Amino acid sequence: TLDVGYRGLGASYFQSSTSLTENTIESYLAVLKAKGDMVQLDVQLTKDYVPIVWHGFGFYTSDRDRSVRDRFDLRFVLIRELTYSELKASRVFILKRWTVQEYTNLNVKDVSQNRRIFPKLSEIYEALPNTLGLLVEIKWPQIMASGVPESTQSLNKNTYVDRILQTTIHHGCGRPLIFASFDADICSMIRLKQHVFPVILMSIGKSQIWDEYMDLRTQSFQQAVNFVQSAEILGTALHVENFQNKHQLVNLALDLQQALFLWGNDLQDEHLLEQFRALDVTGLIYDQMDRVGPSTWKRSEFFRAPQLMELFGAQCVSSGNSTTIPGIKPAKPTIWPKLR
Length: 340
Known about the structure:
Blueprint: E1 2-6, H1 25-33, E2 38-45, E3 51-53, E4 58-61, E5 75-78, H2 84-88, E6 92-96, E7 99-103, H3 121-127, E8 133-138, H4 157-171, E9 177-181, H5 184-193, E10 199-203, H6 221-231, E11 235-239, H7 251-254, E12 259-263, H8 270-278, E13 283-286, H9 289-292, H10 306-318
Parallel strand pairs: 1-2, 1-13, 2-8, 8-9, 9-10, 10-11, 11-12, 12-13
Antiparallel strand pairs: 2-3, 4-5, 6-7
Helix pairs in contact: 3-4, 4-5
Keywords: Hydrolase
Pfam family, one: GDPD
GO biological process, one term: glycerophospholipid catabolic process
């Protein structure tokens, strides 16, 4: 069972589960120090199609010269509405229990590069060692069961996926990497556009905590398993609430040789983590790995094995990017990436 750090060591903006800022290189490296096997990160595109890492579809901001006293002095802006240069020049505010906190780790000169928010996806690939696996969640707003959209999106979905794939092939091959998305169509698109990186469907399923999505493929574990089987993708990542008092339900996916990852706040309990490890789930995505993770008993992270790294190195060759593998001759010109 793989130990996967949720946004690094955990969420930090709306709940203080970690002292490190979520979705930063610093937080990802802390997972490696805690002997975690992978990190989960959120990627989306700016207006000029630059893949960046950020969880929400937008953030609160204000004009550079405006004094901010409370939340009513702020406005909400979407990532897709800003170019990358505009994003870097923006003020960023986080609302925590009705208090307003300005986030400065963006353009301040004395702040470590590893602590910056809005890192490019290419910067993540280049900064993290290849032995640290990545679960790259592609963000796309969903329609809720009530008919209300999570957010709006005006970027071209086809180009959106292509740009993330291109960035990954040029900067991120040669490492354990799995794509994931709550959008079932994006999962299908990744599966059909390339054959190097596997993909899993993320889903809430049945939950008392989260509202359901309108897409029927995401409304239950059974529906998610059925979709994975028909789309010929690697597996699913379900909220742990679907398996409360029904732990043996994991066999529904494992018997079909599908990968099964679990996520959710409840997984900060060491005993629950052990119960699911005993059931051989593929991976557990959770916060606070430095506190409840495997560092006290795991000898080394899983992907450090040389045989595995040699296997993942073949990704670069098969995708047409062999320049990063020592001793490999450059591939002949290929039709990759063929943008469909």
